[in-house]
Amino acid sequence: METPPLFDEAEKIYQQTRASHWDAVAKKRDAWRGLGHWYHRRLTEIYKFLVSPGQRVLEVGCGAGALLASLQPSRGVGVDFSAETIQRARQKNPTLEFHQLDAHDLSSLQGEFDVIILSDTVNDLWDVQRAFEQLKKFCKPHTRLILNFYSHLWQIPLTLAQGLNLATPLQPQNWLTPEDLSNMLRLAGFESIRTTNEILWPLPLGGLADKYLVKLWPFKNLALTNFIIARPAPQPVAKPSVSVVIAARNEAGNIKNIFERVPKMGSRTEIVFVEGHSKDNTYEAIEKEMPLHPATPSLLFRQPGMGKADAIRLGFEKATGDILMILDADLTVPPEDLPRFYEAIASGQGEFINGVRLVYPMEKEAMQTLNFIGNKLFSLTFSWLLGQPIKDTLCGTKVMWRKDYEQIAANRSYFGDFDPFGDFDLIFGAAKLNLKIVDLPIRYRERVYGSTNISRWKHGLLLLRMVAFAARRIKFV
After folding, report:
1. Number of domains in the chain
2. 211 plus 292 within the same structural domain
3. Are the C-beta atoms of 254 and 449 separated by less than 8 Å?
4. From the CA atom positions of the chain, what is the Rg in Å?
5. Strand ranges (DSSP E) for 70-189?
6. Which among 165, 197, 232 is the end of a domain?
7. d(CA 86, CA 403)
8. Are 76 and 68 in contact (CB under 8 A)?
9. Minimal CA–CA distance to 56: which of 119, 110, 93?
10. Which pTM value belongs to this model?
C-alpha cells in the first residue's frame, strides 16, 4: 500500500499562502507595533504560571520566540514554517533552538519534552488532528500539551482591529471550540485535563478584568482566548512498588489491625509509620507489631514537629515506593480499599487519586452533620478553584507518584506552609503541576478506637484562610 502524499494540491496552496503571509508579517513587525502586545503580555503571564522554569519546552508556531524565551527552559525548541520569522527568532534568542518546519511534518525533529505549546497556532492549521499526531513522539507520560486559541465570539472585533491596522492581520481562521479541540486531541492520542477562559480586555488597564472578572460567570463566556491543558493518553505501569504512609497519634488500639489488613500491592508494599507525640502507647504498639509481621516491610519514625502534614511529609521523605499512599490510622477508610487506588494510578486513569467520602451513605457516627456540610462547601469551592472536579477535599486517603510528590515538595513555597493536615498542600501542588486528578468514592466507616484530632471551628477557619490564599495563587493569577 502506497503512503499518501503529505499534502494534496489544495493543502499545498493553503500552506504556501500562509507561509508567505507570515513572512510579510515578520517584516512588517520590524517597524510596526499594534495593540497586540497587551494581549501577548497577558498570555506570557499565564504561560509562566503553567510552566515552571528549567523544563524542556517545544513551541510549535513559535513566532519570534518571545514566549518561549520568557519560560526560561532548560532546552527550548521553537518551530515555525515562516523563514523570515525563524530568522528573527534566532537573532533575538541565540540560546534557543529554532527550526523552519511545518507543524504537519515534524519527522526531522528529535528529542522529548516536558511541555509542548501551541499558542494561537491551531487557528491556522490545515489539519489539526494530524499536527497533534506529530507531537506524540516527543512525549513522555508526564508531558503536558498546552494550547490557546481565539474564541469565535471575537471574530468580528478582531477583524475590525485588523482592518484599522491595530492588530496583526490574519488569514481566515479555523475558529474551533474547546469541544472541537478536545475531540481532536482524543483522536490523536491525548486526553484533555482542564479548559479555562482567559483575557477579557486585551488592552491597557485590563488587570481587574483579565485576572478576576474573566473567572466569573457570565464574563468568562466572553473571554478572548481558550486554554486547554492535555496529556498523552495514559499507559499502564507494570507492578510499581507502594509505600503506605500512616500518621499515628493516639491510635494504639488500631495498630494490630493495620498490619493485618493492609493488602499487598504491586511488586512490594511497605508501611511507613510516623508517630506523633501520642498520649497513649502508640509508638510501643507499633514496635511490638513490626517483628510479628516479617512479611510486611515496615518503618517507624517519631515525628519531630506537629500536625498531620508534618508527619506525612516525613513519611514521604523516608518512603521508598514508586507510589505513595496516605492511610489514616483511625481506619475510617478501610485498608481493603487501597487496591482500588493502586489500580487507578498504575493503570494511568489518574495521576493524583483523591478519596471521596461523600458519595456512599456513611455509618451513623462517621461524620457529624456540620462537618459533612463543611466538606460539601469546600468541595464546591475547590472544584471551581482548580478547574477539575474535587468532591471531597479532606478525605485522608490520597495517592500519587513519588516523583510527582518530589516536585510538589520542591515548589511548596509557592502556596505557603500553613496547612496542618497536608490535604490542601497536596491538592494545590497537584493542580499546579497540571496532574490529572481523579476522585475515587469509598465507604467511610465509624471510628472504633480513640477520638478525632480535628478541631471543627479552629481548623475550619484555617481552611477558609487557605482557600482565600490559594484563590490568589492558583485561580486569579
Report:
1. 2
2. no
3. yes
4. 26
5. 75-80, 97-100, 113-119, 139-150
6. 232
7. 36
8. yes
9. 110
10. 0.90
